[in-house]
């Protein structure tokens, strides 16, 4: 489930993070690492297949080879990856493209993307197969569960308009974090916010037959589901460290591609069993889904395209989620690492 959507003012972010202390960081690999430069990275959620390349890079010593000691931190709330980075309490965060644009445009949060981790959307409309919902047209007269975010509301408005109908033809119900249970208990007909690489295989493992579709074919521009972010000050003062971080991350990804089963085992060894236990079968399916979406013939892993960013900026303004369009230089930076 995509844990995001709460847009905070910069003042609140800076006040909130003063009370936060990094936790759940990976332990030092050895006492000899004290001379390495520490890099604190806030994930978007607990360890799952999306993060396998980071754990592989750690396990194989790729960060150490670059002179880095990477500490992976799990978020305490949905905004940690951007709020802690914005306040200089963390160096890198894993967050979401559209949310970065919104916070930059509306609150001038000093954070930019330094690399796209997933080159395509994972967010989807998910429903039980018995509902026969396979396109936006099928949502007319239906109830859609969501986590109460303006972005989800805008996504539904956009796809319904593309389908030649109106968002008033659907009922949106804020179900909080109960996306999947609200659907499996028939409290809603479909949900938005679940991911094709996690919720879909999880539901299938639990015995549910589901339909799903992503939104980029229905009036929503394609977007990067996961991006690495860093704050403006760090980008200006220590881009060399970010170069090393990205280079080691790419090496980890190459190993995941070469041997997904070995990567899966490394991930399972690093799972947060107390907070977010992993199913081996679900994570295996998740890797199968993710790998062709993290890199393809048109886009290398971590690459970013200006047109993809501009399309999303334009769309967010058209939906009223931002009033002014940020410049591309304000939302992304290209840091060479090869």
Describe this structure in words.
- Helix content is 39%, strand content 16%.
- The strands form two sheets. Strands 2-1-3-10-4 form a five-stranded mixed sheet, with helices on both faces. A five-stranded mixed sheet has the order 7-6-8-5-9, sandwiched between helices.
- The two termini are 33 Å apart.
- It is α/β, with parallel strands linked by helices and 338 residues long.
- The chain is globular and about 60 Å long.
Adjacency order of strands in the biggest sheet: 2-1-3-10-4
Instruction: Quickly count the helices.
Output: 14
Distance between the termini: 33 Å
| Percent range for β-strand residues | 15-25%
Counting DSSP E segments of at least 2 residues, the number of strands comes to 10
> Roughly what percent helix?
25-40%
What is the makeup of the main sheet? 5 strands, mixed
Which short descriptors sum up this protein?
338 residues; 39% helix; alpha/beta; globular; single chain
What does the secondary structure layout of this molecule look like, with pairings?
Elements: H1 10-17, E1 37-42, H2 52-59, H3 62-65, E2 68-73, H4 80-86, E3 92-95, H5 97-107, E4 111-118, E5 123-128, E6 143-146, H6 150-162, E7 171-174, H7 179-184, E8 190-195, H8 199-205, E9 210-213, E10 226-231, H9 232-237, H10 239-258, H11 260-269, H12 280-294, H13 306-318, H14 328-331
Parallel strand pairs: 1-2, 1-3, 6-7, 6-8
Antiparallel strand pairs: 3-10, 4-10, 5-8, 5-9
Helix pairs in contact: 1-4, 2-10, 2-11, 5-13, 10-11, 11-12
């Amino acid at each position: 489930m995509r844990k995001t959507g709460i847009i905070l003012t910069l003042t609140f972010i800076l006040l909130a993070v003063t009370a936060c202390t990094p936790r759940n960081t990976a332990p030092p690999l050895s006492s000899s690492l004290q001379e390495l430069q520490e890099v604190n990275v806030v994930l978007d959620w607990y360890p799952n297949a999306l993060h396998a390349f980071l754990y592989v890079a750690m396990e194989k010593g790729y960060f150490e080879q670059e002179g880095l000691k990477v500490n992976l931190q799990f978020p305490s709330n949905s905004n940690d990856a951007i709020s802690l980075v914005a306040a200089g309490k963390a160096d890198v965060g894993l967050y979401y493209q559209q949310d970065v644009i919104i916070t930059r445009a509306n609150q001038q949060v000093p954070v930019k993307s330094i690399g796209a981790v997933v080159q395509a959307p994972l967010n989807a409309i998910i429903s039980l197969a018995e509902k026969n919902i396979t396109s936006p047209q099928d949502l007319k007269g239906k109830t859609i569960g969501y986590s109460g975010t303006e972005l989800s509301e805008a996504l539904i408005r956009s796809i319904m308009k593309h389908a030649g109908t109106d968002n008033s033809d659907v009922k949106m119900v804020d179900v909080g974090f109960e996306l999947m249970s609200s659907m499996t208990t028939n409290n809603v007909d479909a949900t938005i916010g679940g991911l094709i690489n996690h919720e879909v295989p999880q539901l299938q493992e639990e015995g549910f037959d589901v339909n799903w579709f992503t939104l980029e074919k229905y009036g929503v521009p394609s977007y990067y589901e996961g991006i690495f972010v860093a704050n403006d000050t760090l980008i200006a003062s220590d881009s060399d460290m970010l170069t090393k971080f990205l280079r080691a991350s790419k090496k980890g990804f190459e190993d995941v591609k070469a041997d997904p089963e070995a990567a899966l085992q490394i991930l399972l060894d690093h799972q947060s069993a107390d907070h977010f236990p992993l199913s081996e079968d679900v994570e295996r399916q998740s890797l199968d889904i993710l790998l062709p979406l993290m890199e393809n013939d048109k886009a290398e892993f971590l690459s970013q395209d200006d047109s993809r960013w501009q399309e999303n900026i334009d769309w967010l303004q058209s939906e009223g989620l931002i009033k002014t369009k940020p410049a591309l230089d304000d939302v992304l930076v290209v840091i060479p690492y090869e």
